[in-house]
Amino acid sequence: MDLGLKGNTYAVGGASGGLGRAIAECLIGEGATVIGIARSRDTLADMATTHGDLFISHPADLTDGTAVRKLGDELIERSVAGCVFNSGGPPTGTIAALEMTDWDAAYASTLRWKIQLTKALLPMLREQRAGSLLYVESVSIKQPIDNLVLSNAFRAAVAGFVKTLTREEGAAGIRANILAPGYHATDRITTVLAKAAELQGIPEEQVKREFLAQVPLGTLGQPEDLAKMAAFLLSPTAQYITGQTISVDGGMTRFLTG
């Protein structure tokens, strides 16, 4: 199926690794140009060498409001057709263990920059009468995950923001959706497993078996699995899909509607 992405430009956060890199490379494979955003300047430069004109490097720290403003200016200048809001998740931890400074940092890394960049892009997208915004969050947006209180709280806030956004901007042709990944084979799951093993005092391999026991398909997802869904949601093929939170989790979410 031709998704109709060829010739369009999309911004992808966290493009240097994990889910973000998989999304960026999937879009490039469909003929789209990708503006890759990440802190790792060297990795982005390597990707630009590999993909040529279809990859534009934009090193940035998304917790820095000034950097987000400059990013918004570039995305407007390039008339992006859509944006993938993706970055590393906040630290693991319980309510009792985390300090207020941890909450402040998690707000900056998980919620604030997404609101700022969205607001920056809206005037351009309204003028274009089209645009697809995709927020990569977590299954914790549907059911809380133990030892991930920061993710549980702030990703729920993203859901409220995105749902409101679709109500306010749908008439302008602007779509917004959320992807809720489960356990995928990325550096993030390695961190989560290590912390769970530390707290429980058991080997990581045992923790991994317990995590996978929650997944009906019995395996970790591959980043490419989620990337294909992301490409679809960004594309004109999904023009009547907006305001949705779609799980890509091997069936682990027990919420009745997925």
From TrEMBL:
Its EC number is 1.1.1.100. It holds the Pfam family adh_short_C2. GO terms for molecular function: 3-oxoacyl-[acyl-carrier-protein] reductase (NADPH) activity. Keywords: Oxidoreductase. It comes from the Bacteria. It is an enzyme of class 1 (oxidoreductase). The keyword Transmembrane does not apply. SUPFAM superfamilies: NAD(P)-binding Rossmann-fold domains. Gene3D superfamilies: NAD(P)-binding Rossmann-like Domain. The keyword Oxidoreductase applies. Belongs to the short-chain dehydrogenases/reductases (SDR) family. This is 3-oxoacyl-[acyl-carrier-protein] reductase FabG. The lineage of its organism: Bacteria, Pseudomonadati, Bacteroidota, Saprospiria, Saprospirales.
